[in-house]
Give the backbone structure.
Amino acid sequence: MAKMRAMVVPKRGSSLQLQERDLPAPGAHEVRLRVQACGVCHSDAVTFLGLVPGLTYPRVPGHEVIGVIDAVGPDVSGWTVGARVGVGWFGGACGDCANCRRGDTFACPNTHGPTGVSRDGGYATHMVADASALAHVPDELDPVESAPLLCAGITTFNALRHCGAGPGDLVAIHGVGGLGHLGLQFAARQGFRTVAVNRGRDKEQLARSLGAHEYIDSAAGDPAAALQALGGARAILATVTNAEAMQAIAGGLGVNGVMMVIGAVGALTVNSLDLLQKRAAVKGWYSGTSADSEDTLQFSLLNKIASMNEIYPFEKAQEAYDRMMSGKARFRVVLKMDA
Ligand SMILES: [Zn+2]
Ligand SMILES: [Zn+2]
């Protein structure tokens, strides 16, 4: 029987192991991909550390996947062998449940759940995905360069286009890292007056080259006051992984301002008086569906938006993951398959 290889988390808290497995046959409504590249995301820690209930092992992480369909299961229409596709965190949707019928397909309870968490993901030569989780990937996009657009890209692009700001409005990108370096590009190209906020000045030049019109050093003073001095933010895209840092900037929202939280920091304290006086809000944002992924890829192609990546061979996935978790990568880490 034909084989595939996967980098597997064998049990909670363990390092990755290389495993050889039988090549799986796609079931109904599923396809199998030959993976070309898979991004390494901070949310992969959910799988490594067992951060959601009911996670079973062994599990293959990875939810920034670009590959080519190499087998199509029964009851799949619109997808053929040879098509280039992407799979993100969104694991698919049934189309029939109450959430799907209202257009909230991201919250469908009837699929396998997130890619690389409750079903095997892209740290592998092959993977199986639900057909409803697939995004078309334009031929012009390089799979290795573009894989991070399937999570870091869609999350920032989609949160920004739903943040309520219009062209010319002040929008702050909090954190110039894996998410933020894409958020800056998307915010500027979506027409916002874009402010980069980061600790220190060492990323200022880069932030400006990515599209930031203003730069705030959050270590040099009160970042909320600095945003207020610019008029108050219509939106803040909070990409950092530190609750105190998010709390310190929430006061920078202007009237009707919205802080879009896309960094997972656990409990977050905000000043309710400040929010109600400004009619401001703090809300979370789910990355997006496969259709949102397609929009992200098309917008990125149109506007020459690219992720800055460090590339690792598939077999060095553990090293790649450790590098990502160190916070030192500039800025995303991507696994390249040798197939
Ligand atoms: Zn991710
Ligand atoms: Zn559903």
Remarks:
- The two ends are 18 Å apart (CA to CA).
